């Protein structure tokens, strides 16, 4: 059992950030929630100094509104700069930043913006660790909605070791307080088994009631198409793997 600490969560209202805030609170920590909804902005810097007062760690789970590479790169690098500067002023000892498994193998787009994010976070001055996660169970709905035209959704033919956002949050909360971060700048976390995205998306659509049909598609214009299809986004042998499976998660989810 770790001593209670004050831990700041950037993106505390997001898909994974809300679970990080909940896990930390359940473990007895004080959570400084950072998001625009809470009046704290990692891009303008508004409210950051006050939010970080007395914090020992920042968990960075914020992401901007645009998935486009240049806009996302701008968001991540600006946020990292502000979190480091304000973190240093407040005496924060560590930053743990969320990223994506396989992002370093990607050829472009949002995933490459994550590479710039990782570099900016690791550049200091506050000591930092990257937590790369596979796609979240909770992200399948978003992928379906992006690909839906009428009654049909097109989703990438992707092999992915989907993980629950809550499971990622537990590992992020561990990294926030573990006395030594150990070897290497990156920790990977993934789910218990490899899934085929069109299949799990179809399960989700059937449970939710729409869309009526899900097609797996291979987009020749996507530079990461082969990576998706050949397992290039799967975690390595040192990754932390934990349930629930997508089906277990889906059985428990409420709409
Ligand atoms: N989704 C996935 O499957 C997945 C998988 C692996 C890794 N990741 C990574 O995990 C991280 C979080 O992803 P997510 O899917 O949880 O994101 P999300 O649901 O889109 O949440 C984004 C969070 O960032 C906050 N935010 C946006 N602009 C902000 C600003 N200017 N200042 C402060 N907060 C701001 C949002 O709150 P406000 O709008 O209130 O500001 C929200 O809390 C990202 O780095 C992502 O790449 C995601």
How is the topology of this model organized?
Blueprint: E1 6-10, H1 17-26, E2 30-34, H2 48-52, E3 57-60, H3 69-90, E4 94-100, H4 110-122, E5 128-133, H5 140-147, E6 148-149, E7 152-156, E8 159-160, H6 165-177, E9 186-190, E10 195-196, H7 197-208, E11 213-217, H8 225-229, E12 240-241, H9 246-252
Parallel strand pairs: 1-2, 1-3, 3-4, 4-5, 5-9, 7-11, 9-12
Antiparallel strand pairs: 6-7, 8-10
Bound molecules: NADP nicotinamide-adenine-dinucleotide phosphate.
Structural class: alpha/beta
Q: Report the end-to-end length measured between terminal Cα atoms.
A: 35 Å
Overall pLDDT: 96
Order of helices and strands: EHEHEHEHEHEEEHEEHEHEH
Shape: globular
How large is the count of helical segments?
A: 9
Unreliable segments of 5+ consecutive residues: none
Radius of gyration: 18 Å
Characterize the main sheet: 7 strands, parallel
Helix fraction by DSSP (H/I, runs of at least 4): 25-40%
Strand order of the largest sheet: 2-1-3-4-5-9-12
Ligands and ions found: NADP nicotinamide-adenine-dinucleotide phosphate
> How many β strands by DSSP?
12
- β-strand percent reads 15-25%
